[in-house]
Amino acid sequence: MQEIAILFDMDGVIAHTNPYHSKAFEAFFDKHHISYNLAQFEQHMYGKHNSYIMSHFFERKIEGDELLELEKEKEGLFRSIYAQHIEGIPGYVDFLKSIKQEKIKTAVATSAPRANMDLIVDGLNIRHMMDSFMSSEDVKKHKPDPEIYLSSAAKLNVPKEHCIVFEDSFSGVSAAINANMKVVGVLSSHSKSELPPCDFYISDYTEIKLPSLLNLID
Known about the structure:
Elements: E1 5-8, H1 18-31, H2 38-44, H3 50-58, H4 64-82, H5 92-101, E2 105-109, H6 114-123, E3 132-134, H7 147-156, E4 163-167, H8 170-178, E5 182-186, E6 200-202, H9 210-214
Parallel strand pairs: 1-2, 1-4, 2-3, 4-5, 5-6
InterPro entries: Beta-PGM-like, HAD-like_sf, HAD-SF_hydro_IA, HAD_2, HAD_sf, PGP-like_dom2
Protein name: Haloacid dehalogenase superfamily, subfamily IA, variant 3 with third motif having DD or ED
Keywords: Carbohydrate metabolism, Magnesium, Metal-binding
């Protein structure tokens, strides 16, 4: 069998963290007297990098040291809120085990900070089942740019045409498409109509079996 890699985004794909990110941002924006609503969160938060989120809601460019300080504050809030609620998307861990039984390479490729990734990966006890980890600190360009997926494929030494990406956001799916990879849309945060066209869709990992996934690669 040709070598295949399966690349996972994290928020909304490995774990359903978006409600907890919303709580963290609510507390963060309240402290900074920034107005917000749920519709704005859905359009301008889910799947976006903090540089975009901060700049949008503060209505000015947030970058450099200021971005690092604000990001540290907000992500610290998220980790303190989510630490007692770590739980994978239904069926995820069992699905991951089935992948590793077939010796398929796997990776986490997230726009989240490394500390968030470490919290979730270790909270779910899946570190030993991943062959590559990339977070926001590891790339210069963020989704929808394909850098994180192309770099992950290179680290795994697997051609991009043999990679399958699991994503849940518009920018994430776009990044996978821009990398010329197959993409499974995880409908944890958005509906099919809110995402670019994917090769396959699931609500959770009880809805997919490995043979169906492998059929996506010619």
